[in-house]
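Q: Start with the shorter request: fold the first protein.
A: Done. Sequence, then structure:
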Amino acid sequence: MSGEDSIVLRANNVYGEYIVSPTTSIKAVNDVSIELRRNEIIGIAGESGCGKSTLIKILYGYISYPLTARGRVLLNNKGNSIDVLSVSEDYKRENIWWGVVSYIPQNSMNVLNPFMRIGDHFSELLRKHLKIEKDEAYKIAEEYIVDMGMRKDILKAFPHQLSGGMRQRIVVALALLLKPSIVFADEPTTAVDVVLQKVLLHFLMDKQRELRNALTIVTHDMGVHAMVTQRIVVMYAGRVVEERTYRASF
């Protein structure tokens, strides 16, 4: 596979701004260009407020007020190039999000509906994208959750009945359910202890090796980058100021 063929996403001259008033905006991402490659773990590092999380929202194509974005984010999906900043949110929901590109946010409760059991989160996602019946979807969810190293009875729980660490594992499992080509993980180990941090990182890395996808981990924790990333991009004040290869220790 050539270097060009391995590129699954290419962002060119991307800008992101937050509107704070009719005449004022704050620039969070300033002229960033970046490439993501198949079967690679890339880390995005930098201090809080440097634009890391905003950048991956733009790469994912999740643009909502007050965030605005411009530039080009070209997704290579089965040989077709799609600019995720040019297509509608409905198109992304139907054709890109979850199945091709997944996003793991910092707070698991931003993904999980507190009024739905965990099993319904999995079965609803499967039914929507695979067009299968509820019973079949739930059976697949049971097999999948066990394969991911969790107990089957977790599917009967509501999000508030699980620990923060377990909710984060559930969100990671949801993000990987449809075997996406690209996964964005925004501070995936925030607010968990050191032991659970290693569990989550191994969890992500094992699935990345299995799927051979592009995993992008955003964190200010350089220890996490040292453990898992193969290439690191450092941001400062909305710009990429350094990019280099890393030798992961896991």
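Q: Next, the second protein, separately.
A: Sequence, then structure:
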Amino acid sequence: MNEHIYIAEDEDNIRETVKTFLESENYKVTDFENGDLLYAEFVKTQCDLVILDILMPGSTGFEITKKIRKISTVPIIILTAKDSDLDYATGINLGSDDYFTKPFSAISLVMRVKAMIRRVNLDKQAQNAQISEVNLNYGDISINKKTMKVLHEENPLDLTPTEYNLLIYLIENKDRAISRDELLDEIWGYSKDVETRACDDTVRRIRKKLADSRVQVETIWGFGFTIKEENP
């Protein structure tokens, strides 16, 4: 079955160009002139990946991302005309998985889409397989893989799907340092040639959410990250 992608973009030429490139890769694409139309359709029929412009008539891409995240973990890519750190942080914090600044290469966007969908499909296969260890515990963090619930002591941590997957991977590989390239490959499905700030920004958000925990993510400068449990 071909994966179904929704795109909301009010600039006709960008929307049509992206749609054409995605369809050339055999994806089914439904395009919308604004995010409200996309969300109305998403509530009725969910898709496999969402591409959202930020500034559109009606609700912004940020507002639509927030709505979608309340009901789905579908991958979301944000498009923006501004190369703004604030826009980037806002989109990622609301639960988007990656970010493109206009003008961008449609080919590069398609490569990211393919990588994300491949990663999601692998995750689904893993979830459908028998999970040998349902509960994962490390320090004062406990994770139930079936329910995807994460607790710090008895307090739930509100993690986005990408944050959840990254935290799981770090804990399951707690005895070694992990490179950025490995994380981009394992969590996002990106090759080392893809330039993105997604990994570092996701780690930064996880650190904030683990601020009161003994479990901390440490940076290995020039290489990547490792996870450690601090002494009580």
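Q: Describe the second briefly.
A: The first helix runs from residue 12 to 24. The mean pLDDT is 86.
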